[in-house]
Specification:
This protein is α+β, with helices and mostly antiparallel strands. It is about 45% helix and about 10% strand. It has helices at about 1-15, 30-35, 55-65, and strands at about 20-25, 45. The chain has a two-stranded parallel ribbon with strand order 1-2. The mean pLDDT is about 90.
Length: about 70
């Protein structure tokens, strides 16, 4: 877990936006590591079924396409 947390910190420090998704059909608690790994709380998704994956990817892709890259 420490290595994953360090990797996430390094990714974010490099200015990369990081989205995380936890598929959790068993009702386990949300992963603190995945929550903290996401760039911000809005970029962490907790799904309760695999059926939600497509809509979640659609949501993320919509938000990404709204970004505007500049120099």
């Amino acid at each position: 877990a420490a290595r994953q947390a360090l990797t996430c910190a390094n990714i974010k420090a490099a200015g990369i936006t990081l989205w995380t998704i936890q598929v959790n059909p068993g009702g386990d608690p949300a992963s603190t590591l995945l929550q903290q790994c996401a760039t911000d709380p809005a970029k962490f998704f907790l799904l309760t079924s695999a059926d939600q994956i497509i809509s979640t990817f659609d949501t993320i892709s919509f938000k990404i396409t709204k970004l505007r890259l500049t120099h």
